[in-house]
Amino acid sequence: MKKNIGNKFAFYPTPVIVAGAFVEGKPDFTLVAHIGIVSHDAAMISLNRSHYINGGIKERKALSVNVVDESWLSKAALAGSVSGRNADKSSLFEYSLGETGVPLIKEAKLAMECAVLDVYEIGGFENFVVKVVNTFAEESILTDQGDRPDYRKFKPVLFEMPGYTFLKTGETLGECKTFLKK
Ligand SMILES: Cc1cc2nc3c(=O)[nH]c(=O)nc-3n(C[C@H](O)[C@H](O)[C@H](O)COP(=O)(O)O)c2cc1C
Q1: Atom 6 of ligand 1, nearest CA residue
Q2: pTM across the whole model
């Protein structure tokens, strides 16, 4: 029997990314778990408007989205525990520059540079609607064809807010078409 547990926000787990942008001439890196797809080619990155990184994203209308896996989770978590307003996070990661000038974290096996299309404000959050400009992936996490990430090889870290816990993606169940009824 199901129990009504109230209006609990049960959209978790969500993938964890580190957003990167230049703020006042230095890179800032911020952990973000509230991200989502809003169309076939747009996604939303939800940032509290008090965060230091927001100013840099708005100034350049771009940010990097560095997908976190277990290999660099501790450093990624650090980017979520201190604000660039109080501590310099610019040397936390080695980075390269994308064509939009955003810092792309070298440790991230999968990273996108994204352009901001719009900002939707709600409840103290600035929600950046973005499109992908370039995607950089380690060859070791790509399919045999080499044209897309293989999520059997690459396991993004996930986050669930109610238990404040990290998870990672699990086993592959099979291609969708094998589950679709005729
Ligand atoms: C697991 C985890 C997930 C987080 N997810 C978000 C998020 O989705 N949105 C957000 O605004 N802040 C999120 N934060 C908080 C920011 O990462 C944190 O406040 C950071 O220090 C802000 O850095 P900044 O001021 O340099 O931008 C998260 C923190 C943790 C530890």
Answers
A1: 32
A2: 0.97
